[in-house]
């Protein structure tokens, strides 16, 4: 019975993780993966992020693709009670770290727009976009209208 329940939970977790997505301006689905957190799609394209509180830097990451420009703009609306860090990391085609940019943003109980701009070193670079907690504590925040576009 325990093994069957374990297999069921693993399959359920894989389904939940793979069903989470955000949409770029072109409406291309981008996986939204928890980093020390569970990400749940709620209503109207909103995502609830619940962190474990084991360390600072928990939240989610996405890896958007195919930009038409080296000037990247990460935008979203967010709400919560604790500040979060917006972060973009750039790597080359082989996965070698090139650079990163971070911005701490406050969250409130009301939806508010947040954004971070970034200039790529190369048009062939890849980026990871993060929204992470600043402190080591269980945190909940919500995001919607998440986009990453080349300007």
Question: In brief, what are we looking at here?
Answer:
The protein has 151 residues and is mainly beta. The protein has one helix at residues 2-19, and strands spanning 21-23, 29-31, 33-35, 37-41, 47-51, 59-62, 71-80, 84-91, 97-105, 112-119, 126-133, 140-150. It contains 1 helix and 12 strands.
Notes on the protein architecture:
By secondary structure, the chain is mostly beta strands. It contains one helix and twelve strands. The chain has a five-stranded antiparallel β-sheet with strand order 3-6-11-8-9, with no helix packed on it. A hairpin with a 5-residue loop joins strand 8 and strand 9. The chain is globular and about 35 Å long. The protein starts with a helix and ends with a strand. The N terminus is likely disordered.
Give me the secondary-structure category.
mainly beta
Number of strands: 12
Instruction: For the record, give the distance between the C-alpha atoms at the N and C termini, rounded to a whole number.
Output: 54 Å
Largest sheet: 5 strands, antiparallel
Tally of alpha and pi helices: 1
Percent of residues in helices comes to 10-25%
Global outline: globular
Order of helices and strands: HEEEEEEEEEEEE
In terms of topology, how is this protein built?
Layout: H1 2-19, E1 21-23, E2 29-31, E3 33-35, E4 37-41, E5 47-51, E6 59-62, E7 71-80, E8 84-91, E9 97-105, E10 112-119, E11 126-133, E12 140-150
Features:
151 residues, mainly beta, 5-stranded antiparallel beta sheet, 51% strand, disordered N terminus
């Amino acid at each position: 019975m325990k093994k069957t329940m374990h297999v069921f939970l693993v399959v359920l977790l894989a389904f939940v993780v793979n069903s989470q997505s955000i949409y770029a301006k072109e409406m291309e689905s981008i996986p939204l993966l928890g980093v020390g957190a569970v990400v749940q799609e709620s209503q109207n394209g909103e995502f609830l992020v619940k962190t474990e509180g084991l360390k600072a830097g928990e939240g989610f990451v996405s890896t958007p693709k195919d930009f038409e420009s080296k000037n990247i703009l990460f935008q979203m609306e967010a709400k919560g009670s604790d500040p979060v860090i917006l972060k973009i990391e750039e790597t080359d085609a082989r996965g070698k770290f090139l650079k990163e940019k971070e911005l701490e943003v406050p969250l409130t109980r009301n939806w508010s727009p947040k954004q971070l701009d970034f200039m790529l070193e190369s048009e062939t670079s890849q980026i990871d976009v993060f929204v992470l907690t600043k402190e080591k504590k269980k945190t909940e925040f919500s995001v919607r209208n998440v986009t990453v576009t080349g300007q």
